[in-house]
Amino acid sequence: MDIDLLFKIAGIGIVVAVLHQILNKAGREDQAMMVTLAGMVIVLTVVIREISDLFQTVRTVFNL
What we know:
By secondary structure, the protein is mostly helical. It contains two helices and no strands.
């Protein structure tokens, strides 16, 4: 696992949290929720890609 992956996920989390707070204070709760959901989808996409690479490496190591 690369440390860049952790920084990328943390950066996305910080940006989403700030946007969520700004939109909440502006009275746009529905858009704040959409920003949060979009952030979760982006992070899940990154994590799923990494898990796929892990499974591919396991297959290669064990010749499956």
